[in-house]
Amino acid sequence: MADDIEDQFDDDNHEAETETYSSDRKKHYFIRELKMMMYGFGDEENPYQESVELLEDLVIHFVQDMTIKIMELSKQNKVQIEDLMYLLRKDPRKYARAKDLLIMNEELKKARKAFDEAAKY
């Protein structure tokens, strides 16, 4: 009788875990990009799925933490570039990379604008 009760609880636990796992199933936003980055940094062309998922979890947590910190700093309840740069100021590598990406973004905007204007004529 006790074994039947334990089996019933084990089945209930297993179903609850399965439901939780499937409801917590997240979208994989960066899998393709992370695989390419990992390969570019010397990993296998098809890295272990667990490694990619772990790296994605780290990226997502980093973005969430930075967003929370930005929102705490922000006076307008908006994520602003200036606030991000302020948070990155103590990490020279991240700050320099963010600055490079912002400069590249501006250059791309100018190039697109010039291309659109040239296409009109």
TrEMBL record:
GO molecular function terms noted in the UniProt entry: protein heterodimerization activity
Ranges annotated as biased composition (Acidic residues): 1-14
GO BP term, pick one: transcription by RNA polymerase II
Coiled-coil regions listed: none
Identification of the protein by name: Transcription initiation factor TFIID subunit 13
Predominant localisation class: nucleus
Organism field: Brachionus calyciflorus
Top-level division of the source organism's lineage: Eukaryota
UniProt entry tagged with the keyword Transcription: yes
Cellular component annotations (GO), alphabetically ordered: transcription factor TFIID complex
Entry keywords, A to Z: Nucleus, Transcription, Transcription regulation
Keyword Cytoplasm: no
Spans annotated as Disordered: 1-23
Transmembrane domains' residue ranges: none
PANTHER family xref list: TRANSCRIPTION INITIATION FACTOR TFIID SUBUNIT 13, TRANSCRIPTION INITIATION FACTOR TFIID/SUPT3-RELATED
Pfam families: TFIID-18kDa
Location in the cell: Nucleus
Family assignment from sequence similarity: Belongs to the TAF13 family.
